[in-house]
Write a sequence for this structure.
């Protein structure tokens, strides 16, 4: 351990179970010397193991709906009471699409559900920061991080309206990052993580295939939830005090690739199999005509 976060305090949104990136961040933050408060919706807490994690890490769990300003105000107040004052970092690890869960395709969205997707997955990030700023809850040179995905910039089949949410999330980080940086020297960044088999991510169509493709395309392979947690900690630390308003790719190099040798090998094998199948079909048809 490096004591990267010794003396620092922060709120972590979204720890549900061991698959969660937020869960890994919480554990690693405490290992690196931080004090934390965990939060998630009451329903998610009942489905997951957030309270158990809080007990394990010797901290508190405060239920809060990140789309509710009232809930966020109570959360910030409770966290400041627990910490005895201001704190230093926030992780926003929240994302959910009702359209994806209901199997609605992108060209047949329910617009009411789209609004919920945007509110939960992106606008909640703005609400968190607006409430924290109005309460002057974060120390100067603090750090706020949200988790994103490359579908904000590129079209990836099956990611659906979550792509729109991630694009909005990244825009909010830039816009609020300017204000928070100018006024309080507080950094705001997003991390574009490799596809990760979290509980929320498992709802994305074809996740297994997407993970295999990105792993074959990435020179370093996919980044795991624990890898991501370690990267998040560097952004919470004092080592990145001048990094803000950025979308930082943490994907093993996937975002800079066009085609890798490993991916090309699989593609070539499939082409050869298709060509062989077509040739066999032509021969069969020719024989059947005789």
């Amino acid at each position: 351990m490096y004591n990267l976060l010794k003396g620092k305090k922060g709120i972590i949104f979204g720890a549900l179970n061991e698959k969660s990136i937020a869960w890994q961040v919480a554990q690693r933050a405490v290992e690196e010397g931080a004090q934390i408060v965990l939060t998630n919706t009451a329903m998610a807490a009942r489905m997951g193991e957030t309270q158990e994690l809080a007990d394990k890490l010797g901290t508190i769990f405060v239920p809060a709906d990140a789309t509710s300003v009232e809930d966020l105000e109570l959360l910030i107040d409770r966290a400041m009471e627990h910490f005895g004052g201001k704190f230093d970092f926030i992780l926003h690890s929240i994302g959910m699409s009702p359209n994806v869960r209901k199997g609605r395709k992108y060209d047949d969205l329910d617009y009411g559900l789209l609004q919920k997707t945007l509110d939960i997955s992106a606008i909640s990030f703005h609400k968190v920061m607006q409430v924290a700023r109005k309460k002057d809850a974060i120390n100067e040179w603090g750090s706020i991080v949200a988790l994103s995905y490359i579908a904000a910039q590129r079209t990836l089949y099956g990611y659906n309206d979550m792509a729109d949410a991630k694009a909005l999330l990244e825009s909010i980080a830039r816009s609020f990052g300017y204000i928070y940086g100018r006024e309080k020297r507080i950094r705001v960044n997003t991390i574009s993580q490799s596809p990760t088999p979290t509980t929320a991510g498992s709802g994305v169509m074809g996740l297994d295939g997407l993970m295999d493709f990105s792993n074959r395309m990435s020179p370093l392979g996919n980044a795991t939830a624990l890898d991501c947690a370690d990267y998040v900690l560097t952004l919470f630390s004092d080592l990145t005090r001048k990094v803000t308003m950025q979308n930082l790719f943490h994907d093993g190099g996937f975002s800079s690739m066009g085609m890798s040798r490993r991916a090309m090998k699989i593609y070539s094998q499939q082409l050869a199999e298709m060509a062989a199948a077509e040739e066999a079909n032509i021969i069969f048809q020719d024989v059947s005509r005789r």
Summary: The chain has two domains: 9-258, 265-290. The beta strands are 9-13, 35-40, 60-63, 87-92, 138-148, 187-193, 247-250.
